[in-house]
Each structure stands twice: as structure tokens, then as C-alpha cells.
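#struct-queue
[09:14] JT: dropping the first one here, sequence first, then the C-alpha cells:
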Amino acid sequence: MAKVTAKRIWHKKTRTISTSFFACIAMAVLMLSAPSLLFAQEVEAWFKKPTNAALYSQVREDVIAMASKMQALGLSDSILASRLEEGARKKVSPNILQASLQGDLQRAIAAASILKENGLFSSDKKKATAAVEQILILMRAGTSEDEFRISLKAAIAKSGKRESALSRAISALSVVVEAHATYQLNGTDRERLALALIASDMNEKRFDSILASMNAFAQAGYRGSEALTKALEKASLGASGGHESADEGAAGSVPGTQNGSQGMPQGNQGGGAQEGKTQGSQHAPTEKPQPPASANQGSHGKTGGSPGSNSR
């Protein structure tokens, strides 16, 4: 903003160079003394609405400080603004909302750090923000920093340091979250599932077909780790050169079924694991992360879960 202002003044022939210089100094002082006006743009605008100001004035200063930190990471504060809007709509108390936002900030810091250390943090703020938002959905649903780091490194080994690697890691972890919500997988199985999907030749759009396979084995009497093992084995043994998807690979005989096809959902797009579910499904994210390729679509409306919920 300082450069833009200086440039405009510079091109006004009626002004002198000294005037431009002092204008730049004044703008620099403004940037240091009131960062919220320049950096916490969307959060600041949110608090300017009379209703929001009245209900959440006690946390305004802290939230604006969080927004400035978010901007310092190279991310838009829209991540926090959209959560504020969601919290207000659900009438979340100020203290709980503040704690939820603080959690999101810490998760965003961790996500950005992992992306940067792996050379996948975009210099485009919109793309970087969209990518981090997808990671936040996973983290709110229980994905740990280590899980994300390990999965991203595996995806990079598979696809190279490019956006497709991030997309592949996010897609695999989305399936892990859904599988865990239904089958309560332990840490070893969560990692095993993520790495198996990432390393496979399966198109990431078909990753969630493994859930249909797990569901079929669950209906046949297998549970949790056993259902996962059987589903992964079936996908591997049924694949031709590793290119066949899990639902196609599961079409063979399954104990307790006729011709191996009874009870196998067709065209499953992530809902196949709903049958035979166990406790814990309420912790699944309210929204599935989408590949970062859609980052330029904006940042609102992508956050999963609700402020102050148990999913954090």
C-alpha cells in the first residue's frame, strides 16, 4: 500500500519529491502502528458489522491479532473470517469461538510450515490459503501433523514436488478420516491405509472406493484392521499391473456373499462405508477436502466442522 500511495503521489506533477518522501514515511509509520487496518482486512470488516461488534467485542482485539499472524504466514485472514461467521450463525459464545480460532491459527501455522519445508507452499496467496483450508478440515477431524507430513512426503516421492502431490496426500487422508470414523482404526492402520493409497497407481478420485471394499468385508464379519487388510489385499491381488481401483478389485468372492458381489455398493463415492458403521462416525468432517487445484475459487465456505465442536 505504501508503494502504491508513493507512486500515485510521485506522478502528480504538482507535488514535490520531498512530499512523496514524507508521504512514504507516514505510510510506513501507519503500517507499524496499525497492522490490523492493513492486514486483518476481512476480520476487521466482519467486526464492523453492528451485530457482530455487539456480540463479540470482548474478543475483537485478540482475533484481529490472530488475523495479522495469519497474514504474516502468507495466508488470507478469510480463514478466520469464515469461521467467525459460522460461529456467530451458530450462536457460539465469544470465549469458545476465540479458543476455536486460536486452534485454527496453530493448525494453520503447522500446515504452512510443513508445506514450506517440502517446497509446496504457493506464493499465490489464494492458492496457499485454499490448500491450508483443506488441510485444516483434515486436522479438525483428527489428522495429526505427523500424519500429514508423512503422507505428503510419500506423495512427493510418488508424484514429485508439485501441486498434484499435495492433492494426492489430501485425498488419501480424507479417506483415512472417513475409514477411522467408521472402523476406529489405530494409528498404524491409519498410516498403512494412507501410504497404500498414495503409493498405488489408483487415480485419487477413486481412493474412496476402498471404503466400499472395507464395508463388504465388514458385512462378511471382518472388523476394523481385518477389514482394512482384506480390502487392501483384494485391491492388490485383483489389480492388473496395479491400475485397477479398489472397488473393481473387490469384485471377487467375499466370505458370506454370492459371486462376491452381494452387498457391494456400486458407484460408491465415499458413502459405501456408512453401512455397518461403528461408534465415532460423528467425528467425520462435515466437508470433504477438495484438491488444491480449485484454489482460485476463493476461500469462503470450505471450512469443515463447527467452532467449539468436538472435532477439534
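[09:21] JT: and here's the second one, same format:
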Amino acid sequence: MTHIASHRGGSHLWPENSKFAFAETAKLEVEMVEFDVHQTRDSRLVVHHDASIDRMTDGKGAIADLTYDELMRHVILGTRGERIPTLGETIAIFEPSKVDLRLEIKTKAEGNAYEGMESRIAAELMLSGMLKRSMVTSFSLSRLEAFVEALGMHGGKREDLLGLVWLCSPLLLTQLGSKGLLASLNAYDIREIALKADMISAAVLDFWRGNGITVHGWAAHTREAAQAMFRLGVASFTTDRPDLAIAARPA
């Protein structure tokens, strides 16, 4: 079964990564919600896509440079005064719903890791009882490795997750090729990859499946793109228009 993940809570329908978007997503017939995690200067986990708050709030600055209290002075544009949610607040919205989590571990704007963030994410997922309802993703293999290590330190196992997925950009695919990507996955013992939806074909799937790798999609934002994901049978895909993906789901 191919699962639908509402990307940033359905960012073409509602203000992305907002509590309102998440509450609306929780009502939908989708399997997952996708969101991004950053860390404030005082080590609070918050859900926001960009490393800075410039694009989506009435403030400016890098999340890494702001304390949580400083961050809370700013509101998300397009909402009725909402602040950027914490990871805990986001979990609380979905815990009573049927919608599981597809969490992306982010880095600072320059690509550097947030100190100790993977450990805090692991602890939060375990404390909330949501570990087994969570898929963890990142564009950084080293962040996935750090998360697995942190999970073990908290007494958890990677097998408890819904998935551990390397997000791959079209640029990296062009630079390394499929065989180069496979070598990178093997080096980090990761068995799942997410490719941009328009880069996935039957031949591409045959290559990855033949090498024991599960394939997910991302950026399937139209009905036609969602239909292709269902037809190809990817494990899951993200979409900014979960309503169109639901309508495209085969009966």
C-alpha cells in the first residue's frame, strides 16, 4: 500500500507547519504528516521548514540564534496569531488521530548539525509513545546515523520506527548516479531512499528494489503526480495537496 504524507501539513492548502494546518491534516484520510524539526539556541525542538524565520513569520533571524522565548515573539504569516509549534505540541495534535509522523531532521543554514538535537528528538518520541508511529528522514546520512545512535542510548531500536529514510535531491542523484547513492546507503546501513517524484520510473524502482532498497517519493503535488506514485507502488510520498492525493487514490 502506498501511503500519503501531508507535506508540512498541506502547505498549498494552509500555512505550512502551523498548528492549524496540522489540525486540518489530522482530519484527513492520509497515513502521515510530514514536518521539519530545528533547535533553538536554548535547545528547544521546534517545527519549521527553513533554518531562518524570515519567510514564514513576521520576524527575522536564524532559529539557531534565537532562544525559544525570542522565537515566540513572532507569529506565522497567514495564521490568527499562531507561533511556531514545538515538537511536543505537534505530537499532541496527532497522537489521538490515525495520522502517523514523518519527521525530517534539519540542519543549520550552513549545513552544520544542531548539537544534541537527535538525542532530544529520540527522547521526545519515546516519552510520548510515538516512536512506533514515526518515520524519521533527513537529507543528511550522518544525521540519520546520529539519530540511530541516540535512539540506542535511550533504549530504543531503529526497528521500532515506521522507517528511516535518506532524502535524496535530484542534484545529488545527477552527481553520484544510482550506483553512487547505493554505495552511500550501504556505508551507513540505510535501506530506504526518497526520490523526487518526477525522478521515479518503473526502471528506477527495479534498480532500487533489486538492491534491497525501499523507495519513497517526495514533491508529488498534483493529482497526476500522485496517480503516478500509486501506479508505481512507492512506499509513501509527500504532497502539498493531500486533498488531490486522496482523490487520486485507487478505489
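[09:30] RK: nice, looked through the second one.
[09:31] RK: DSSP finds nine helices and nine strands in the chain.
[09:31] JT: good to know. The radius of gyration is 17 Å.
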